[in-house]
Design brief:
By secondary structure, the chain is of the alpha/beta class. The chain has two domains: 176 residues, Flavin prenyltransferase-like (Rossmann fold, 3-Layer(aba) Sandwich); 203 residues, CoaB-like (Rossmann fold), CATH 3.40.50. Helix content is 32%, strand content 23%. The protein has 13 helices and 21 strands. α1 packs parallel to α2, α3 packs across α5 and α4 packs across α7. In the C-terminal section; belongs to the PPC synthetase family. In the N-terminal section; belongs to the HFCD (homo-oligomeric flavin containing Cys decarboxylase) superfamily.
Length: 400
């Protein structure tokens, strides 16, 4: 499930959020999409055709006629696209779209389009809230267009509120979900058990030993598995992440021992196990019942090993397809392959903290996947896109 080979027409209108389109184009190109950019004439006040054409690897059009008098055929542009995304969509462009005011190349192309249309509005707070804008958004949705709501934050005017264009990662996710929505649900009827996030090991009622895992990767995997028809059991350590799909049963835990117990409450019924949680290897031998006071210059905590959840999953494996994760800083591939065999895994996903943009807290990740007989390497992508790659690989191995 991917957007490789999909033809995506990006129409950019004249707002400050136009600078974000560079990141959107780059992300879509990395995922194999074919991207064509058009823009309103005023957009050139914010971004250049050169930068957008360099990233998209295609000429960028803003007028009906080129410099040498050639016609930029808006009908051909419209019919070429598998989907048209208008981002940022200013109040002016939105009003023209829903009212048929066709005075530039973007609107003419939009009105010729037979493909689905996705709109990402961006404007100042009061403009976004204005009844006319809200009416136009409702009209756009009544046309069957997908509207990605503006996000809240600091705006160009200095006001704080809703009006910011959705982040490129959100737009990419919407596009991916659109193309994958009607695909065959290969995991229909399967139970996928996923662990996510960190574990916190208590020192006293106030302090704990933990790590920097946010849970983003595990939650993205849970959403993607659910989109593919699976019943997902998500066992999560402390995390502020949320799932967006139904059919996900979430169990919150704190410590490694709690995660261990919860995993093996459900493991026997699982068809696929994906252990993406960053589980603490050690826990304090003694937990103070009261807050430990700061008295001495040094303080020693005796640690004992936590139960190895993934190793135990491998030992108890019967019919399950088992996926582990390895986060390494040195001898990455050697350590990952060793873990694959030692813990009786079917597949392991390797992250290296040496790779910029990979690892904890980031919205992106860069992975390598190993099986006992295969290796595959992927580019840096959003974690939602990485989840697609991982589950594509799982399906190819598990369902073959």
């Amino acid at each position: 499930m991917s957007i490789s080979g999909k033809k995506i027409l990006i129409a950019v209108s004249g707002g400050i959020a136009a600078y974000k389109i560079h990141f959107l184009i780059r992300d879509l190109i990395k995922q194999g999409a074919d991207v064509q950019v058009i823009m309103t004439p005023d957009t050139e006040r914010f971004v250049t055709k050169l930068s957008l054409s360099t990233l998209s690897k295609k000429p960028v059009y803003s007028d009906f006629f080129g410099d040498n008098g050639t016609w930029n055929n808006h009908v051909e542009l419209a019919l070429w696209a598998d989907v048209m995304i208008v981002a940022p969509c200013t109040a002016n462009t939105l009003a023209k779209m829903v009212n048929g005011i066709c005075d530039n190349l973007v609107i003419a192309t939009y009105m010729s389009a037979k493909c689905p249309v996705i709109i990402a509005p961006a404007m100042d707070l009061d403009m976004y809230k204005h009844p006319s804008t809200q009416k136009n958004i409702d009209l756009a949705e009544s046309f069957g267009h997908i509207v990605i709501p503006a996000e809240s934050g600091e705006l160009a005017s200095g006001l704080v509120g809703q009006g910011r264009m959705a982040e490129p990662e959100t737009i990419t996710k919407t596009i991916v979900q659109f193309f994958n929505f009607n695909l065959k649900k290969n995991l229909e009827g399967k139970i996928v058990l996923i662990t996510a996030g960190p574990t916190y090991e208590a020192i006293d009622p106030v302090r704990f030993i933990g790590n920097h895992s946010s849970g983003k990767m595990g939650y993205s995997l849970a959403d993607e598995a659910a989109r593919r028809g699976a019943k997902v059991i998500l066992i999560s350590g402390p995390s502020s992440e949320k799932v967006s799909e139904k059919n996900i049963e979430i169990h919150k835990v704190t410590s490694a021992k709690e995660m261990f117990d919860k995993v093996f409450e459900f493991y026997d019924t699982a068809d696929i196990g994906i252990a993406s949680a960053a589980v603490a290897d050690y826990t304090p031998k003694m937990v103070a019942t009261e807050k430990i006071k700061k008295n001495d210059e040094s303080f020693t905590i005796e640690l004992i090993k936590n139960p190895d959840i993934l190793k135990t999953m491998g030992e108890k494996k019967k019919h399950q397809f088992l996926v582990g994760f390895a986060l390494e800083t040195q001898n990455e591939e050697e350590n990952a392959i060793g873990k694959l065999h030692k813990k009786n895994l079917d597949m392991i996903v390797l992250n290296s903290l040496r790779d910029a943009g990979a690892g904890f807290k980031n919205d992106t990740n860069k992975i390598k996947i190993f099986t006992p007989s295969e290796k595959k390497e992927f580019d840096l992508k959003s974690k939602d896109s990485v989840a697609i790659d991982i589950l594509d690989f799982v399906e190819n191995q598990y369902l073959k």
